[in-house]
Amino acid sequence: MSQFGDAAGTAVGLVLEADPTLVEIVLLSLRVSLSAVVIAACIGMPLGAWLTVSRFPGRRLVISVLNSLMGMPPVVLGLMVYLLLSRAGPLGEYGLLFTPTAMIVAQTLLVLPIIAALTRQTLSDLHREYDEQFRSFRIGPFAGTLILIREGRYSLATALLAGFGRASAEVGAVMIVGGNINHVTRVMTTTIAMETSKGDFSLALGLGIVLLAIVLVVNLLVSMLQWREKLA
Amino acid sequence: MKSDGIQFAPGQAPRSATPAKADAAHIAPADRADAILPLELVDVGYRAGDAELLRDINLIFDGRAPSIILGPNGAGKTLLLRICHGLLVPTTGQLRWRDPQLAMRPDSQAMVFQKPVMLRRSVAANIRFALRVSGVDREQHAARVARALEAAGLTPLAERRANHLSGGEQQRLALARCLAVQPRILFLDEPTAHLDPAATRQVEALIALIRDAGTRIVMVTHDIGQARRLAGDIIFMHRGRIIESGDATSFFERPSTAEAAAYLAGELLW
Amino acid sequence: MNKPIHRITRAMLAATLFVSAGAIHAEERFITVASTTSTENSGLFDTLLPQFQEASGIEVRVVAVGTGKAIKMAESGDADVLFVHHKPSEEKFVADGFGVERFDVMYNDFIIVGPGADPAGVRGAGVNEALQKIAENGSVFASRGDDSGTHKKERSLWSAAGVEPGGEWYRETGSGMGATLNVASGVGGYALTDRATWLKFANKGDMAIVVEGDPVLFNQYGVILVNPAKHAHVKVDDGQAFVDWLVSDAGQQAIDAYRLEGQQAFFANAGG
Question: How far is C162 from chain A (nearest CA, A)?
Fold first, then answer.
């Protein structure tokens, strides 16, 4: 067990003294995952809202597909993005493979279904509650949706945090499309995988501590929002 | 009894001596409802799949007597109300408003549901919201909100979250919204169904206030006592049809159909 | 009551700025090198690449995977330079027209490591004898099983020893060198590894080198510029600069000067 003790000791040291390597990796991870969540929100929330109010043939199917995609294994998605962005792939000409952009693309696709599906879930629950009243007020579907978004703001914020949690904790997709290049695409999860494979556990554990702290903060925010919603 | 062609033109409304002390900008109460009424339903029917839920509905709403729709469960009362308010489109027949364009404006009609629906905002903000979506001038909002809160006895709760109020308070707030907006016609769907007697009395008083301010009332209820207290006319429904309709006093004293007599006697109709 | 929303909006704005800042930062001169995990994990690149960047102004981005995948990457045009250690595959790569020309750069050697107690009794034996004893004894042997250069080397050693490995004792990890050593260390088994990875490996436990110095364990590294005739976007000039520097006196001296745990890990032999 002394191995764990040594690694943990060094790890805590790295975190406390803000080791530059560790800080660089943490910042890149945050940059990638936050960007992915922002982009996914810009697409996923309108998509979820649209699925709430629109009626078209195949809508049920789209919703089922969206719900299934929430469970998409990151490695599978990573492989698909890899094949798309590879020079031999359809988007190869842009030379995006092994860049932070590629990682953002992969994580965006990873969290998009989560944000869209949770947005739709939240808004359709509200829609069921308010639909008649809004039609009685003669509020159109578009204006009504905007009001629902405001009413459901806490649940929607929770959906974004859930997306961020999934993005920051996944390793499969970013490893494949980022390539774990030192100083360029090396993020927390890929570093943990690599350092573990080198049998060098202290940096891995240090990053693990940071990752755990981030996930903890995210979960605290989620429960805070849920508590506020109960009051709201 | 054949219900084809049943029409009625209700008698004079029981007018209260206290018309709302409306400011000059308000339309005179008497004109408010008259501008869109009569509302005429011609051979209205409603089907859902194989079930014929409403049929042969012929009605004229005019005047200002509150109309109460009575009848056992499943008679189609709520459905009729929703069709009148435009939430549902009848599968057959027509609705004819005197001034359809005016009738469809958001400040012309309102509806109060069995279970009130409140935004997750303060009590006052809910009233302001109704005023805003009804297109009422912004300068009038503060005064109207204050007056409606006062009338509904909600002034002390003005900043409380509307969705945290009790059922009775929420229903009063729903009526306060109508009081503020002053629609030309108000549809109420069993507004006191879930309330205790004290809350029921407060809600009835508010309905009377709205009536006296010149809004035409059309209400569904299960409560025969309530119907006696508020009705000018009665529309009695059974199994998707209008069985009997007319002046409330004569309906309660001399129901002309066996079904209505049985219903008033408290027997179970199905 | 709007505050949380505003806070979220602000956080998003900040995040977006963060992204754009990163996009600007990415406008640099760099090449992508497909190489192997063993080279990357040895730490050699950490001293080599800064020296090259200082001399040339070119950043080198290393994607470290198994040799098999590294070659695939280069064939798809996802790298400018291939830097691996399996000569037959490299020569085929050039022969198929994917690479311009192959240059020897350096070598290190493979070793067989195992538990200090050495249950198969192979310490000091030759490679063939050692592998045969491990198989006979049924001692656990952790194999990369990932089509990497090391894995290819291991397969050729087994067939030279006349053993077809398989069964309960032969564990294919399908992972990198370090992960495979972790497995060997965890279950007290043997493994074939390059010396550099072993020297750098931190989770040795009671493991030790049991076989080394056999001439068949020689491990040659080669570097190849990806052929611009196949992939027009290949950064020919900068890629060639890296290849040239590796085989130049400066590059060769830098390789020889690299010390891992106080020992020389790679031996420059360009042009030799």
Answer: 31
